[in-house]
């Protein structure tokens, strides 16, 4: 039975239901995409013209002046470099530690798997709190260092359990077969488990990358006074704060100077928002297929 025959046999109730589904999906897409396109249009529109309002998704007077202005701020360039570096290193280290630990506790011959799993699960429910964490970072001499962006989040219990769930679905006979061929534990992990666990790894990589890229509070706590270790999100926060509350120190003076040069604070805010958002939007399509598979792992058991 071809699709045209099946479609012709649809009842009126099924067709009405399909129409409702299409309408709801279209509405959700519009509500989701419109704010981003509006921000993009304002960032690419002439600042003086933007003050008039009425811009939807298409700039009235196209210009790159807003982006030229924000990239003249030295803090944004430094923040972009640090954010990119912490995203790459943090994602790689997080994947390595989570996958190694997941491989270990997924082994049926590991005697302490139950204890380690229980200990990891407890860390998801019990937190040390903000002040003890701050004191710990201080005592470990991680203040005003780049390592404070990477090491505290190197191991995540949630990431470990997601990867372990996927590894549990891989037949253990593959590991036994590799052992018969002379492979050691690391070889099994690197050449057997990791290639088969790509969907789970891609899912966790996306979580880690988004988390690292969007992080700004750790910069505020541990490196707020160190301009050489500032991040892009922290710089965006300072710009937003300076335009909404009138605070922000050096950024306030830069934005006032930009306004005198016919670049409005609102346009600067929108341009920086696009610069912060676009890198993650570029990465996601390449991981989409793996991400969908990773999110559904464990949903169906044979």
UniProtKB/TrEMBL annotation:
Lineage of source species: Bacteria, Bacillati, Bacillota, Bacilli, Bacillales
Family: Belongs to the binding-protein-dependent transport system permease family.
Residue span, ABC transmembrane type-1 domain: 80-287
Subcellular location(s) of the protein: Cell membrane
Keywords noted in UniProt: Cell membrane, Membrane, Transmembrane, Transmembrane helix, Transport
PANTHER family referenced in this protein's UniProt entry, alphabetically: ABC TRANSPORTER PERMEASE PROTEIN MG189-RELATED-RELATED (PTHR43744), POLYGALACTURONAN_RHAMNOGALACTURONAN TRANSPORT SYSTEM PERMEASE PROTEIN YTCP (PTHR43744:SF9)
Gene Ontology biological-process entries: transmembrane transport
Main subcellular location: membrane
Residue intervals passing through the bilayer: 16-37, 84-103, 115-134, 146-167, 188-210, 268-287
Membrane topology summary: Multi-pass membrane protein
Name of the featured protein: Sugar ABC transporter permease
Any one Gene Ontology cellular component term annotated for this protein: plasma membrane
């Amino acid at each position: 039975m071809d699709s045209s025959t099946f479609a012709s046999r649809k009842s009126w109730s099924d067709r009405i239901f399909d129409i409702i589904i299409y309408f709801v999906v279209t509405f959700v897409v519009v509500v989701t995409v419109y704010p981003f396109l509006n921000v993009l249009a304002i960032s690419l529109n002439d600042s003086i013209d933007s003050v008039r309002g009425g811009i939807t998704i298409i700039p009235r007077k196209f210009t790159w002046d807003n982006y030229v202005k924000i990239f003249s701020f030295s803090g944004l360039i430094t923040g972009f470099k640090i954010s990119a570096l912490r995203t790459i290193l943090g994602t790689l280290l997080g994947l390595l530690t989570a996958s190694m630990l997941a491989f270990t506790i997924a082994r049926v011959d590991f005697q302490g798997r139950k204890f380690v799993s229980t200990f990891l699960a407890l860390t998801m429910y019990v937190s040390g709190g903000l002040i003890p964490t701050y004191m710990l970072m201080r005592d470990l001499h991680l203040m005003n260092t780049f390592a404070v962006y990477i090491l505290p989040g190197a191991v995540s219990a949630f990431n470990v359990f997601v990867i372990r769930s996927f590894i549990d679905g891989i037949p253990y006979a593959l590991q036994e077969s590799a052992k018969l061929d002379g492979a050691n534990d690391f070889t099994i992990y690197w050449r057997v488990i990791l290639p088969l666990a790509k969907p789970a790894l891609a899912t966790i990589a996306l979580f880690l990358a988004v988390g690292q890229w969007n992080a700004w509070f750790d910069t505020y706590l541990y490196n707020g006074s160190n301009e050489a270790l500032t991040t892009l999100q922290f710089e965006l926060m300072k710009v937003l704060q300076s335009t909404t509350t009138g605070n922000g120190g050096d950024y306030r003076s830069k934005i006032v100077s930009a306004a005198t040069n016919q670049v409005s604070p609102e346009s600067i805010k929108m341009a920086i928002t696009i610069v912060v958002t676009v890198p993650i939007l570029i990465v996601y399509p390449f991981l989409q297929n793996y991400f969908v598979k990773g999110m559904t792992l464990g949903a169906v058991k044979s």
